[in-house]
DNA sequence: TCAAAAATATGAGATATCTCATATTATTTG
DNA sequence: CAAATAATATGAGATATCTCATATTTTTGA
């Protein structure tokens, strides 16, 4: 983890101003943090000292259960907040957040800014929208996970993450995200290949029948 | 559904003032709605015209999937907001909300108040907290549903809803809530009886071994 | 550069959960 | 009050998913 200083910091803040998200100046105590792939931005169970706002990169929210299972709760992208739960709630079990690419965030020391932030309508309005989307998304994932087998959820995930018709996510990550065992994921992927929806190319999977996957994914959606 | 008028309305609003939730007066266009058990406060797929605040009663949030399965996403209680998603987001699939007891809510016409509400830090702060709790809860339920079998989740649910040592929820509701089939729920309940955790009394279940259920439920929690 | 660790791969048996069929009992409603 | 509807109940077979064992390949770090 690197904290930008001096000219580097000044330049970065200038190029990526977030002044429009607040109705008071936040630059004074704000820091710029850069995390490398696999760095932990927040450690599970340990309260963060900052409210983060992601400028670039991708990260993952993890929670570890008592039975050892790990859930990848969600992905975090540019323009997302991190640590907002801890800003708002005095009692909160902090989830782990791990960078999955180089990730740069602005970091507002909660200690300094908490009071002002909680009185700033502009900030709160944005955060409220962010949280409403988050809550909705979790509700959707929750109810889908209970109502549909992996086949449907995986089809959706493949379509969402495929890059130019090629799916190449890490199996291990996907297991944690879709909440199934490694074995079962591989099993369903093999089925997709057998049915001709996908074609395996070394470590990647080429989408062969878009419409079949689409059909499977479509039933998740509410119209 | 009944809309309170005149003296009845005035009295009710006076006894249950929510003026402290806003920094501007909301009484003028506010309505008081009373719903009977099984009334739909909001119909699935149809945008509501009000932001509701629940004063008394209980309700359930439902979503219907394309495969016909119904998920009971969550329960709503006094001091919860309803319709906040629609206030915040222009595009949103509205979930169904059904009263499960007589439920009385204050209803703020979005049309009149939207702009002011979105600029009111006091209101937004409360709503933000409400949403953060909601998002956290959904995330917890989501990851638990994937990481643990019904046995654990049911034990937790029984402990949470039992009334003086007696569990008497409707099976059908619980199926929708825990996302399992009726058959399987009954199966696990029978197991609990066989193991001596519960004892069936007519339509209810008496808790016999608190600690066993507690043990099963405990592994869901993060410490 | 080599050993350790992580990721991929596959088989086989176990179990959690679902679907469907069917019966009985309670509750609601015209 | 009777008929319709909802809730409870149980059996049996199907399937989705898990666990464990084990092997190979790739990536990583000292």
CATH superfamily of the largest domain in chain A, by name, is Jelly Rolls
Helix vs. strand class of chain A: alpha+beta
SS field, number of helical segments of chain A: 8
Strand and helix order of chain A: EHEEEEEEHEEHHHEHHEEH
What name does CATH use for the topology of the largest domain in chain A? Answer: Jelly Rolls
Strand content of chain A: 15-25%
Biggest interface, chains and residue tallies: A-B, 52 and 52 residues
Task: Please provide the count of β strands of chain A.
Answer: 12
The percentage helix of chain A is 40-55%
Shape of chain A: elongated
Note the quaternary state here.
homodimer
- Residue windows where pLDDT falls under 50 for at least 5 positions of chain A: none
Description:
2 copies of one chain form a homodimer. Chain A is of the alpha+beta class and about 220 residues long. The first copy, chain A, folds into 2 domains: about 140 residues, Jelly Rolls; about 70 residues, Winged helix-like DNA-binding domain superfamily/Winged helix DNA-binding domain (Arc Repressor Mutant, subunit A, Orthogonal Bundle), CATH 1.10.10. Helix content of chain A is about 40%, strand content about 25%. The first copy, chain A, is built from 8 helices and 12 strands. In chain A, the strands form 3 sheets. In chain A, strands 1-2-9-4-7 form a 5-stranded antiparallel β-sheet. In chain A, a hairpin with a 2-residue loop joins strand 11 and strand 12. In chain A, helix 5 packs across helix 8. Chain A starts with a strand and ends in a 5-residue tail after the last helix. At the A-B interface, strand 5, strand 6, helix 2 and helix 4 of A face strand 5, strand 6, helix 2 and helix 4 of B. The structure holds a DNA duplex (30 and 30 nucleotides).
């Amino acid at each position: 983890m690197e904290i930008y200083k001096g000219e580097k910091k000044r330049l970065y803040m200038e190029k990526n101003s977030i002044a429009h998200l607040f109705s008071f100046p936040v630059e004074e105590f704000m820091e710029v943090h850069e995390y490398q792939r696999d760095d932990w931005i927040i450690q599970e169970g340990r309260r963060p000292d900052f409210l983060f706002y992601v400028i670039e990169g991708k990260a993952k929210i993890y929670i570890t259960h008592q039975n050892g299972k790990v859930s990848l709760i969600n992905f975090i992208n540019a323009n997302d907040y991190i640590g907002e739960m801890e800003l708002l709630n005095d009692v909160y079990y902090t989830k782990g957040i791990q960078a999955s690419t180089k990730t740069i965030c602005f970091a507002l020391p909660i200690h300094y800014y908490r009071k002002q932030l909680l009185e700033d309508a502009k900030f709160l309005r944005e955060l409220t929208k962010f949280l409403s989307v988050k809550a909705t998304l979790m509700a959707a994932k929750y109810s889908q996970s209970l109502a549909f087998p992996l086949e449907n959820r995986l089809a959706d995930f493949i379509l969402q993450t495929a890059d130019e018709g090629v799916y190449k996510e890490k199996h291990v990550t996907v297991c944690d995200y879709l909440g199934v065992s490694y074995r079962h994921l591989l099993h369903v992927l093999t089925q997709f290949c057998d049915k001709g929806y996908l074609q395996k190319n070394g470590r990647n999977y080429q989408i062969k029948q878009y419409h079949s996957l689409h059909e499977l994914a479509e039933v998740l959606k509410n119209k």
